[in-house]
Amino acid sequence: MGYDASTLPDVSDLTVGIIGGTGDQGRGLAYRFALAGQRVLIGSRDASRAAAVAEEIAALPGVPAGGITGGGNDQVATGSDVVVIAVPWEGHEATVAALADPLRGKIVVDCVNPLGFDKQGPYALAVPEGSAVQQAAGLLPESRVCAAFNHVSAPLLADPTIEWIDLDVLICGEDREAVGVVAALAGRIPGMRGVYAGRLRNAHQIEAFTANLIAINRRYKAHTGVRVTDL
Amino acid sequence: MGYDASTLPDVSDLTVGIIGGTGDQGRGLAYRFALAGQRVLIGSRDASRAAAVAEEIAALPGVPAGGITGGGNDQVATGSDVVVIAVPWEGHEATVAALADPLRGKIVVDCVNPLGFDKQGPYALAVPEGSAVQQAAGLLPESRVCAAFNHVSAPLLADPTIEWIDLDVLICGEDREAVGVVAALAGRIPGMRGVYAGRLRNAHQIEAFTANLIAINRRYKAHTGVRVTDL
């Protein structure tokens, strides 16, 4: 059967909100979604900071006029169809919990990786709920929560000279239709492909694998991603 | 800098032992190493069973005459330079502990994935030591323990019509020289490439990721593996 992108829904009209859109990962995803023609809302606790970052991204070559604006997290959650959580792990629980109401009924994409760093490099942090996305799912019982975009390289996303990003976006989730929407969104970014990679209980190792990619990057001086073969 | 296979050692003279060589994963690896021209010893608790499986593999097309023999686990550990642990997780601790003496000073490659299965599919089991390979490292303080070959597809390995296996073998370990030997061994199998992927404390997610590959295989009807991009 293999992978068949033609079965994915048309997501070109969806508005994508990025909570934590002023950080490196969120900013890079916002740029790529805006480049692809999605309407993008950048969220931050500080609405004026979000607006400033949205203006910076809007000024980058190839971003359609009016395609990206910024606002407070609440406003962005309310105004978006799909909401990406891209905050630092330290602020994850509090930020997600505070947005439970505006995120009701929405597709929520958690791309947060709970990692620690010491002199031996990166390592996966223990998360009582199992993973960041399971913590989010517990806090957002009325949202459609997936994990995805955990392995994007922020420097590659941010670099306007890079047009193709060689990455299979691994998606974990319980809601097959939501996974399809997220897979279609991933496929809007040239080079990316969204691949269903299991239920939320198997998301921990996807998040934690980012520590391995960082270790690989350090050893080989690269900006690595992953591809699933035979698909 | 990127990936440079020319820096890897020549391992063509090394004897590779496979503990649990009568199971699907071990048998498949034994076949591929023998095809590649390594001397291979298949180990089992039951030496006569190991000898029978070695004879079956020796009869497959392309396997050099005399390249593969079978024996008891102790004998195989003693007679090999590199020893692959490919036993079921249930027998991992007891089997490894019993081989501490013959494995002294050897490179030990653990490819065991602690997984459970229920009606929702595969999931990662909690391991008190963190991972199978960390359990092995604790039991084998005088061995050079790495994790590798966790993501090989047993059906692909076993299929003599498949000549190229599209897989980056992710290797975790503390001993850089041992990692290099294991990377070189992986590179002996056409299509495979051995990639350093972090320290042993980051092996859990490599083992657990096998649950995701199984979930992907079920969804897309494929025999998937992984490739690291930008290397």
Task: Please give the share of residues in helix of chain A.
Answer: 25-40%
Number of domains of chain A: 1
Question: Oligomeric state of the chains?
Answer: homodimer
Question: How would you describe the shape of chain A?
Answer: globular
CATH superfamily of chain A: NAD(P)-binding Rossmann-like Domain
Question: Quick one: how many beta strands of chain A?
Answer: 11
Supply the helix-strand structural class of chain A. Answer: alpha/beta
Notes on the structure:
The structure is a homodimer of 231-residue chains. Chain A is α/β, with parallel strands linked by helices and 231 residues long. Chain A has a single domain, classed as Rossmann fold, CATH 3.40.50. Chain A contains 8 helices and 11 strands. In chain A, the strands form 2 sheets. An 8-stranded mixed beta sheet of chain A has the order 3-2-1-4-5-8-9-10. In chain A, strands 6-7 form a two-stranded antiparallel ribbon. In chain A, strand 4, helix 4 and strand 5 form a beta-alpha-beta unit. Chain A is globular and about 40 Å long. The mean pLDDT of chain A is 97. The interface between A and B is large, with 42 and 42 residues. Strand 11 of chain A pairs antiparallel with strand 11 of chain B, so a sheet runs across the interface.
